[in-house]
């Protein structure tokens, strides 16, 4: 999925950058608490003047140490910020050259292979993190509490499932409607260890583990490779859209989205011959009232953007361009984009690779603008969602060591993708650390629900 020769220069540059300027410095120890003044101690502990005289040198030494530690921590934080800025500059210089060469050599990859260089538009800069000024729970250190697994692989006479992942969710007419990827062997579509999808519906979360699965390849229109769905209501047309990757993106429509057999026959978004990155995956759609945007990743450290007018949707999408750059460790896959309720800000979260999979957060003022990582929501130790800020409900045995491909529950179902920052819920795929080995498709992922809680 990657070109083994071209990235060497970039890898060397980034290795040098990592050695010279670590992106995430080790957490500094907390400064010791300052001891009270001698007069305060004398009163609080009923000390004599002689006792106060004996401990005064100790207090003076502690005060000096306190000042030195505080000063050192201030310098360390400044060095960290300076290092991140320098890494961004190194990435800009090194990656732009490499990316141009990579596009020319690949000639468009899937959907564009053999047609010459891919025009990816003007490449955006790689930005250092910006301060977190987001509202509600987003503006505080995020803490998530997980349920037990809610949707798990279930077999029937014709299907053997290894995993369920990549969910999309909407609350429609009193029921939660979920579509998700399933890695399965199916006698119906005569496939073995292949990606397809399932549907599940229930009224209350407590009923989710008992809700029956509908295997989408039972519908003749949904056999073959189809996965990573997204579902939303496109208000101007009064239609529901069901989108997924085939590898390129495809869509269906319905007026009764809770009925998995109601979707129309899949159609492609892009015209044949549209130049695409090497491995386009995990498509997510959002509208701003004038344009419908398609965002996706490319398994190459980049986040891509295409758009069309509301009038032309679902057709007329432009050639994709790079919307945001990073590395596979920072911009990997499974992105989603939302409008933050009550603000002019957009939030994108993208799965990253670190000590397990986790999500990083980025903000922009407009959907075709520059994306900036959010300080405190952009590292494996301080993620938007990951092992570092994940706990489990009382009585639930911890079952996942990561937060992987999922979808936030929106404040409404339409294409604007409004997210309420005071009510954050995240349906995610999880897996235990001991289970996380072997063929990726067969890893036993399950779906659970995260709820954000106020940090204490």
Radius of gyration: 25 Å
Roughly how much helix do the residues carry, as a percent range? 10-25%
CATH homologous superfamily annotation of the largest domain: Glycosyl hydrolase domain, family 43
CATH second-level architecture of the largest domain: 5 Propeller
- CATH fold assignment of the largest domain: Tachylectin-2, Chain A
CA(first)-CA(last) distance: 43 Å
Helix count? 3
Strand order, largest beta sheet = 18-1-22-21-19
Overall 3D form: elongated
Low-confidence segments, given as residue ranges, are 1-31, 91-116
- The mean pLDDT is 85
Q: Biggest sheet, in brief?
A: 5 strands, mixed
Describe what you observe in this structure:
There is one protein chain. The chain is of the alpha+beta class and 456 residues long. It folds into two domains: 7-106; 137-453, Glycosyl hydrolase domain, family 43 (Tachylectin-2, Chain A), CATH 2.115.10.20. The chain is built from three helices and 22 strands. The protein has helices at 7-20, 38-45, 49-106, and strands spanning 143-146, 159-172, 175-186, 191-202, 214-215, 227-234, 239-245, 249-254, 267-268, 281-287, 291-297, 302-309, 321-325, 333-340, 346-354, 356-364, 372-373, 390-392, 404-408, 418-419, 425-430, 446-453. The strands form five sheets. It has a five-stranded mixed beta sheet with strand order 18-1-22-21-19, with no helix packed on it. Strands 17-16-15-14-20 form a five-stranded mixed beta sheet, with no helix packed on it. A hairpin with a 1-residue loop joins strand 15 (346-354) and strand 16. Mean pLDDT is 85; it is low at 1-31 and 91-116.
